[in-house]
Amino acid sequence: MLFWKKRTAENQQQYIQQALKDNVNFSTDTSLGYPASKLDPKVFSTEAPFLKDAPLLQVFVNNPNNIGCHTCGTSEKAFKGTQEIEVDVLNMIAVDIFKAPPGGFDGYIAPGGTEANIQALWMYRNYFINEYNAKAQEIAIVASEDTHYSIAKGANLLMLEWLKIPVDENNRSIDENVLEGIILEARSRGKKYFITVANMGTTMFGSVDDPDTYSSIYDRHSIVYRLHIDGAYGGFVYPFSNPDSRINFNNPNISSVTIDAHKMLQAPYGTGIFICRKGLIQNTLTKEAEYVEGMDLTLCGSRPGVNAVAVWMILSTYGPHGWFEKISVLQMRTSWFCKVLQEKGIPYFREPYMNIVTINAAFVTDEIAARFDLVPQKHDPSNLWYKVVVMDHVEIEHLTALLNTLNTVTVLL
Ligand SMILES: *Cc1c(COP(=O)(O)O)cnc(C)c1O
């Protein structure tokens, strides 16, 4: 670990207070030019005594704006402190978790996984236009049918065709021959550039695509492509549960990744993470963003500096070993749940390194689904699956209560 280490609460507090000192202080500094200030003090007190021991809330009321991208070029001077915390936390994630070479990546804390995914699609579309003189209709998005709907949103916004790759109903994996057929058919229709999204944990099943399935087909046919990993859900799970994971920047075919901190990491909403290899993010430069010091290479514009601090605090509190331990406990709980399902003869899907279990809907009544708040794959009668996500708050007692109701197997057969 080059960047990620465990820190005490006192150490975190000092570090964060220093960052606030490095930012503009709207209470004491003369700052006339920004359409920005701290939170309205008539409504949100900056002086409340409990703020003293609550560094995250201090940053929250100071309300820094981490607008722009801080891994390259210059940035707004006014929020230098919280920008540095952002770079620090991106280093922990990109270098220590996803094996990017130090200094070899760009990225930012996006408002969520949706934006991070759209940022990736936007970046690659422009990359193909800028570097290959591609026309929009020559570019396609490739991703499985289990892919999150943010890819459909991005395809719609960017007016790109999405080649939706079917998966096996039971093991949720892509058939290489079917994939090859779809790619070659698209090529015969004039598609030349393929923006590919491989999932590291789909939202519904937790299934993980093998990125090599894609790259081997592209390489075999000398097809130009770029590969993005959607780890919005699995980004803080899979690299820890599977020590042999190759879904990271050690794989030269992978050039970007999305990770959500507001899912498994339990950070406040508004904390998606976008990371890409150096040399790519310039493709989303908006030249018209002249009033922003440095460059705006992001989709969103203004964004809260406090979110970077929240992610930094969570990772610094656990440290790498603490986080590994937490994921290991969730894995054990998930495995136990699957073992009992198996003993009961209830069919389910589980990706071995993930903490989502998707149960065959034939074994779950509407009443059970409602009582336990199980999420269906589809909100209509054609639904075939219900999922259980083994989060921190989902304990053995809850799982036992559910398992005790799932005793209908002999009745149904
Ligand atoms: C949740 C999720 C997203 C979208 O993330 P938001 O943070 O809700 O915008 C994208 N991809 C996957 C796999 C997800 O689970």
Automatic annotation (TrEMBL):
Gene Ontology MF: a single term: transaminase activity
Record keywords, A-Z: Aminotransferase, Lyase, Pyridoxal phosphate, Transferase
Gene3D superfamilies: Aspartate Aminotransferase, domain 1, Type I PLP-dependent aspartate aminotransferase-like (Major domain)
Positions carrying N6-(pyridoxal phosphate)lysine: K263
SUPFAM superfamilies per UniProt: PLP-dependent transferases
Secretion signal, residue range per the UniProt entry: none
Cofactor(s) listed in the protein's UniProt record: pyridoxal 5'-phosphate
Protein's name according to its UniProt entry: Aspartate aminotransferase family protein
